[in-house]
Recover the amino acids of this structure.
């Protein structure tokens, strides 16, 4: 087990402030069972994973869930529900983009496209989609199954400024090592008044508070940053964006709660997770800031 002690919480990697405090100690329940300290900045409020594996080491931690992502025959009740929920959410995501952009076609950049389900769905609706994905397996799956060719992260340098109307990141932003640099790059790639759509977990959600360090949304060490509506909005504004809208991703509270119950080793994890997921979802209806995951719509200033 990798034991990251409190003494390793130093300066904030975002704003550089000293005196960051320990927010929690979380375990990678999926692969390594190593423990990681989460630091919290007293100035900007950012919560971050301390001393994650470097870029070359992270590949081993990222290669999880490929059967779920790549396979076409999911097994197990939780995975099957995930697939059904994804089908519903594809339509919801498309509707959100088209409502706030006021258009049903244009140039869309999908960063961290994974296996290409969303990219293919948007292409079928008439959008011109450019997808960026770091892993070869996912890019190959997209090409083989959707005939949609993706580019690697390094190929982004070939993209022209102001070439896109929309940029999307679906549960990808929290994985990126240089989030501010990435936002600045998107600001360059977007046309005037273009939209940046970002979805990520929210550790101030009802289910996150309930499960504490067992909350599956922390997903250390893959999640390097742990956002709240305030911290992600501050970062986006600093990089030239204005928040237009944010809303819950309704199914995430159920899925994350079930996984969190499994992390705790509870019996009847599915039943207990569905109950706590329902509680979290109902509270998010009253207060969006309590949602397990949120999707944010930012406009380029």
């Amino acid at each position: 087990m990798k034991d990251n002690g409190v003494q390793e919480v130093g300066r904030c990697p975002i704003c550089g402030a000293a005196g960051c405090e320990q927010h929690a100690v979380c375990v990678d329940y999926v692969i390594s069972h190593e423990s990681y300290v989460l630091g919290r900045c007293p100035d900007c409020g950012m919560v971050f994973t301390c001393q994650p594996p470097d870029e070359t080491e992270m590949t081993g931690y990222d290669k999880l869930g490929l059967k779920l992502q790549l396979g076409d025959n999911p097994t197990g009740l939780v995975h099957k529900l995930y697939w059904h929920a994804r089908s519903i959410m594809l339509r919801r995501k498309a509707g959100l983009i088209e409502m706030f952009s006021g258009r049903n076609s244009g140039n869309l950049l999908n960063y961290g496209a994974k296996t290409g389900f969303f990219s293919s769905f948007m292409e079928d609706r008439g959008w011109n989609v450019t997808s960026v994905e770091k892993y070869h397996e996912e890019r190959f799956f997209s090409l083989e199954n959707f005939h949609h060719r993706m580019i690697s992260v390094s190929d982004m340098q070939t993209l022209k400024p102001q070439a896109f109307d929309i940029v999307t990141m679906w549960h990808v932003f929290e994985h990126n090592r240089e989030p501010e640099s990435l936002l600045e790059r998107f600001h360059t790639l977007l046309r005037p008044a273009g939209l940046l759509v970002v979805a990520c977990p929210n550790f101030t959600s009802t289910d996150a508070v309930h499960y504490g360090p067992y909350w599956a949304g922390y997903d250390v060490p893959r999640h390097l940053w742990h956002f709240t509506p305030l911290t992600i909005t501050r970062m986006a504004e600093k990089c030239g964006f204005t928040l237009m809208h944010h809303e819950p991703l309704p199914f995430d509270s159920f899925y994350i709660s079930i996984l969190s119950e499994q992390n705790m080793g509870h019996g009847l994890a599915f039943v207990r997770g569905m109950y706590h997921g329902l509680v979290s979802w109902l509270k998010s209806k009253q207060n969006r800031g309590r949602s397990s995951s949120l999707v944010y719509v930012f406009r380029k200033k």
